[in-house]
Amino acid sequence: MAPLSLLLSVLSVLSTIAAEYVEYDTSSHIIPGMINVHLVPHTHDDVGWLKTVDQYYVGSNNSIQGASVQNVLDSVVQALLSDKNRKFIYVEQAFFQRWWNQQSDAMKSIVKELISSGQLEFINGGMCMHDEATTHYIDMIDQTTLGHRFIKKEFNKIPRIGWQIDPFGHSAVQAYLLSTEVGFDALYFFRIDYQDKQNRKNLKNLETVWRGSKTFGSSSDIFTGIFPNSYEPPTGFHFEVNDKDPIVQDDIDLFDYNVQERVNDFVETAMAQANITRTNHIMWTMGTDFMYQYANTWFRQMDKLIHYVKKDGRVNALYSTPSIYTDAKYAANESWPLKTGDFFPYADQTNAYWTGYFTSRPSIKGYVRSLSAYYLASRQLEFLMGRIHSGFGTDSLADALAIAQHHDAVTGTEKQHVANDYAKRLAIGYAKAEKLVGLALASLSESSSNKNCQKPTTKFEQCLLLNITYCPASEVSISDGKSKAILVYNSIGWKREEIIRIPVSSEHFVVTDSDGRKIETQLLPIDDTSLGLRSYYVQAYLKKSPTSTPKFWLAFSVSVPPLGFSTYFISAAEKKGTESTISKLHKYHGNIDNIEIGQGNLKLSYNGAGILNQYFNNRSLVKEPVEQSYSYYTGDDGLGRDPQADGAYIFRPNGSFPISYPGQMAIEVMKGPILDEVHQSINPWIYQITRVYKEKEYAEIEFVIGPIPVADEIGKEITTQITTTMVTNKTFYTDSNGRDFIKRIRDYRSDWNMEVNQPAAGNYYPINLGVYIEDERTELSILVDRSVGGSSLIDGQIELMLHRRLLFDDSRGVGEALNETVCVDDECSGLRIQGKFYFRIDPLGEGAKWRRSFGQEIYSPLLLAFSEQDGNSWEKTHLTTFSAINPSYNLPKNVAIITLQTLEKNSSVLFRLAHLYEVGEDKDLSVMAQVHLRMLFNDKNISTIREMNLSANQERSAMEKKRLVWKSEDSNAEKGSRGSPVDSSKLIVELAPMEIRTFIIEFDDTAIYCS
Ligand SMILES: [Zn+2]
């Protein structure tokens, strides 16, 4: 019998396995007086990192990482449809747009419904979650605008929340410009220094009001939430298919029933977080990288947790979003602790300062910066010509640049194949924009003879590889009767006088300006290092060898009107003696007499060993001993007691070594009427040219560094130092995303008592525009051509890190060593970097003029386009000079046009002006500026002008009405000044220091220029 009764009882258990249906109550809302746990379902989708953006989207290359954003979005929509209480946030528009374009109309209307009901909410809303250290503010604005305007157009929604959950430290510009001025109500992230975080936990200061701008004071305040641990769920609550955390097993008839344990875990975890958080609202970020590929695994567990936690009654759990959470924090009507400055540098452990990526992949950083300026200029030209729909334009470059701002793109922290993908996208975008620029310049220059707006016939060539001395258009020899026209475009609103340099093949020619006047020129023999770089990299990039070898750089001075161009002509010299001046060449070897260069106010002197030793300005009478040197750090291999290696993210040196000059340093000096150059082979893999232009008062240093030798199996990071005797008291200043300068003090943080573990890495800061030091008499400024890391590790000295080549992975996920190589055929060698930086010493209080106005000129170099012509008939058929603005007008030197872009409709234009100075920076230029739009848009009639928020997805006045104003514990309510609203009859825009104003302007007609 026994066997039978056993059998029966087994059957009875089995029969109850047809368990009953439980309807989970997921309708919880905020309950005042209880701890409210806001469950925020989210996915963090890197726009390229271990896989390319497209591989992540479609879910290919899964052997690297099992991730498909397509799956995420598909399954989230279904999961949301099955319970209207469920919510989800989505961030990266680059992915969302890829998905959206593939959906049926039926699916689109379903998704629109989810968005309009608030079940699906876009936050952050840019194309990517941009980095905050190595990005330029203009790029941050552009990529955010692209995403925000899409969301507005397609869904009529305006993102309310900044969600920078993964970037490696946080900038002041992100807080005030890309959050407050965008109209965000709050900003959330988690990566701050581990010491800072612990301190904030102790003080309940993880949530704070951040005042990112000195200039705008309390009007720049934004509520900022720092997650206590990471952007993942609390430990024990990860629910992707393969996650190991216990799910809620609530079927009493099945084994492992665990409802009470899981509820206890939930309550305990919530209470711990509540203990370090102000108010009774806490947020759980329910998701992480590429999660929700099978969304139900998450939602099923959250449904149950909300249901059973409610029954339990100790805390309250609800489906929420950062917007709901923010509103709850606001409703609490608290005063929050005040944070000023920024959150750099970021360290997650004692020896893990994330300051290496400030310099990682300097080639991508340089490429992004130069295309950023090209994008700005090409949109201007598209506007001036009128938008055309011919398959090329700026959209593709806009997309590529937007994606490149991602926190694993321009940062240099992606795998090599992904870096190649970004570069490919940029190259495709550039190629399309280049065609547009060529056509626009042809169209504008032919506009005098081309009244009927025929398709222009002039063909222009441009030279993206001028930095490696490659420009076929300028190198081609001029045969009899032919000449070359060089059109020089200036995208800045003020007139510029600069020296341009192009490679040429012979010396027998003359250069004339727009009026046919012969102008002074100088020829500088091209050095072997430049030629070597040129032939190797042209072969590597273009898969062909240059057909000829240029002999000289041809330098001459150009004068270019604002938002316009001038034309210069190179033609064969008619008789001997009329050609260019060839620079006087002096070669020195070993012990030499003192050398002095500089034909104008600035003189640089070199000592007997060929080392720079003095800076003297004849006009300002600044005379400073100054030395420039190179050194290198050796990268820690992570094989010691602390396994932290030096890598793509992290700067962890284990030694610093001067790069000594070889006993007999070869030094070549070229002197001429326009500029002097000092060429030095610092060692077999560092070559540098120091230039002093007669008419300029700064020194320009061009370097070629690499291949960094690693045969000793030690990774290295190459730095340069400018050393003075200035007494700088541990203090230096670095810019935030190319905008505000922030005071840095060595080994010191204003927010907590810092324990110094990494004296170099822990004092490195990102530099996008420049860095300066000052003492009682003078200030030394250095400006850069791309994002780099830098510091002042010794009083009186500034250091920049220019290149890094490392052999170990630093265990932050990328899984590769930062060891970049360039290959020709199958032979690869370490990457060589060509770049520039500029330095100048001014009397105290006079440096800002150069940093700001010249800084803008570095960002926006003159754009050169070349065309060949027969005879000298160009003037008859072309305008030789052009300016889009009234000839009697120049923009003031404290204002830049940072956006001038035709929108979908030809008569509608997105327009941004930026004041370039902070309050108190300069006695003449830190003042309210005025821009006369009638003069600027010469002969175009403005019919309406609307002032917008920074990302141009809402009117500024509406944004100001809506945006939450937070109370801080600081009672100082200084708001800083701003320009007054634009009177549409006067059309004058006022800009207060550091102000950026965004407008949408409608013009009456579009036919002023050919379109
Ligand atoms: Zn990320």
UniProtKB/TrEMBL annotation:
The keyword Phosphoprotein does not apply. GO terms for molecular function: alpha-mannosidase activity; carbohydrate binding; metal ion binding. Residues 352-426 form the Glycoside hydrolase family 38 central domain. It catalyses: Hydrolysis of terminal, non-reducing alpha-D-mannose residues in alpha-D-mannosides. It comes from the Eukaryota. It is an enzyme of class 3 (hydrolase). CDD domains: GH38N_AMII_LAM_like. Residues 961-982 are annotated as: Disordered. Residues 961-977 have a biased composition (Basic and acidic residues). GO terms for biological process: mannose metabolic process. Its cofactor is Zn(2+). It holds the Pfam family Laman-like_dom. Its EC number is 3.2.1.-. Belongs to the glycosyl hydrolase 38 family. This is Alpha-mannosidase. It comes from Zostera marina.
